[in-house]
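Form 7-S
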Amino acid sequence: MAVLTREQKGAIGLLQIGTFLEYFDLMLYVHMAVLLNELFFPKTDPHTAALLAAFAFCSTYLLRPFGALIFGYIGDNIGRKATVIITTMMMAISCVVMANLPTYEQIGISAAYIVTICRIMQGFSSMGEIMGAQVYITEITNPPEQYAAVSLPVLSSALGGVAALGLASLVTHLSMNWRMGFWIGATIAMVGSLARTTLRETPEFVDMKRKKQKIIEQKYKDKRTRKELLEKAEKTIDSTKIPLRNFIATCFIECSHPFIFYLSFIYFNSHLKSLGYSSSDIVLHNFFLSFLYPLCISI
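Output:
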């Protein structure tokens, strides 16, 4: 990493901080769900409560593939910088909404609907966030430093989850207002968004846009349609095809993470309650458990 320029190090640092804050906000509700689901969803028997907890968790991941497609399009056509700023702002807005949202006892089932929508927004933006950060780093660095640099957003996301559990444990054990956690999350997300406005667009993206524009300008010379020119631009700029085996392997890795995460931090919460654990005890238990994730990534 010693050969990286000061500007590259600054950009990587900003992206790491942003990813950390993004996943801090994303995981804050996930890890406080054992407490918050009782406030935003109707009181039911333990089995139904477990289903509601699973639904609240799964809603975070439901639209992630669509988020990847949309933010991939934004990143390729508007800019890498725009992607990381938009995703952070979406996370901040959802945190502000949840921090001020009335409970189920106050507004009824509308509270459950709004919480679910906010969770979908957070999941929607989180995939664009981490992938956008990795693409940005890939385009401003070169091997071999690039390999370690691209892994840093993943580590930052794991540390963000640990920090979210730490705050959740602090809030529950000190009997603080749970809304304070979301206000803190919203504030740091807004700060992260503003900090990222100082990033410059990646040279590779600027060069790609210039090539596309140059080809399109040929329209007035060879009188071809805009569609034909765009197709030519795409073929000229990027003709790389991803092997099917690599695609399937990547899908398996990405899909297995939510399943393992759910088993580790959500599924067994009801069993811990049956053993006499309180909500604050479960959060503290999960906090200690969460240290394994960044440790495994580091190894």
